[in-house]
Amino acid sequence: MRYKRTKKVLFYIGVAVVLTYFLFPFYWAVVSSIRIPSELFSPHQSLIPLKIQFESYVQVFTQRPFAQNILNSTIVAGAATLLCLVIGSLAGYAIARLKFAGKLLVMLFILSVSMFPQVSILGALFQILRSAKLINTYPGLIIPYIALTIPLTVWTLQNFFRDMPKELEEAAYMDGSGKFSTFLRIVLPLSAPGLVATGLLTFIFSWNEFLFALSFEQLPNMYTVPVAIAMFTGYYVVPWGQIMAASVIVTAPLVILVLIFQNKIIAGMTAGSVKG
Amino acid sequence: MRFNRMDPLHRTDPIYATAFIIPTLAVIGFIAFWPLGQTFYNSLFKFALMYPQSKVFVGLSNYGKLFQDSRFLNDLWNTVRFTVWSVGIETVFGLLVALMLNKKFKLRGLVRAAVLIPWAIPTVVSSQMWRWMYNDNYGIVNNLLLSLHIIKTPIVWLGFPSTAMPAIISVDIWKTTPFMILLILAGLQMIPEELYEAARIDGANVWQRFWSITFPMIRPTLGIALIFRTLDAMRVFDVVYVMTKGAANTETLSVYNQWTLFTRGFIAPYFGYGSAMSVMIFIFISVFAFFYVKMMKIKLD
User: Fold this and answer.
1) pTM score of the predicted model
2) What ipTM was reported for this prediction?
3) Could you name the CATH architecture of A63-275?
């Protein structure tokens, strides 16, 4: 009995350590964002702030175009996700359900892009986007993001379509419904959970992407959130209070997303690797 | 075309399939394969990004120069160091936490959500959070170590080669171990409980059960997770760029490449040289990707 109890206590200590390790940096960011400057820039900071203020949150929006940056990220990530789902679900359906020659080749061709190191197309893509006058525009990021996220989208969605019962589609064909209208009216509504799971991953990827955003959006008003946060500088000191406030602002919606869609996100993350 | 006559349901499939797949192929053709080809073309010339009209054809000499560039070789080594350490620690740590989360206990849902959050936030944000914690004057890391009397004077973590790379690796571990945990956990949950019961009846202890059941069963998942992470670690950019910008001997290939293309190669004739570096990085990663394709047995039809 005693042995079992010690084991249980040890187990929960382990759980506590893991929880603290993964959550403490967030706690520290929140605390740092509301400390008064004299406490923030002191070598001995208390675990719980003695005085709090929200000045950093105000400054983030008044001294910088951070609201604009959030809007940019929302537009870019939102548009990339929607377009990627539209384009990717068509291809995923064709691979899962339609019979055609060269399927394996097409799939390999699409999947190979997921291994491309982004940096190896960075320079040439910049030249191409510049000649199309797309540098410092939304499409200049949206289109590359679609290309980067489409391999995983096609892969997870075709896995998802494959698992759906065939009978409904076949019945629809028998009733004279065309391939495209069957896809639109029967398959898409049924695959809503798969679309949500994949869409969440695409959105998170596009929201977080840094290298392309840094290289293709060069005006502070066009920065996405990650670029804006990386570029935070002050005249005399690093504005740590503001950096932490901005970090908390963009983390909060992601935390909510994670808490609501936990199972969907994990399903999307693991779909391509556990099943394949 | 043989099956068409036998199966009227699929007669029009090739036409629809072509129409359904063309948008995807068009996007990746224009945004991935065309730039890749152009990168190779650029790598054969000497020119600056701003002055493409004054291109000089230099053949493959940019590639020869790469292997005499000590900064390139050093950054290659840094990338390898970063990859081996971070992926290695992430795998072991991820496996341990996954085994823990595979047990049923109170708060399990909470722990799983908590683990997912570091993975979901932008790398730039996690890097800034940790850069603040590693701050030499006001960071909590020094604060804690000083008050525990482990160190006597504050350490400038991100200022010295001996501590900067480990600090960067620690941020990557914090950020991406969750990916390992969740993938391995998904693999663990597919193991039927009966296997363990049978082993327990046979008198196998925890250690034996792990090596004879758990490990062989999750090996495919583990392999895929490892390769995903290795490919990711080899192209690391964000965390290094935000933490040190490559100072204190932490520069990796992607950071050097981005700098060569856009800072050095903007008006100086190094854009072609940077493109050669991009091609080399592509080749390095393709070698690993080759194993990835071999391991991921693609099931079609």
Assistant:
1) 0.91
2) 0.91
3) Orthogonal Bundle (1.10)
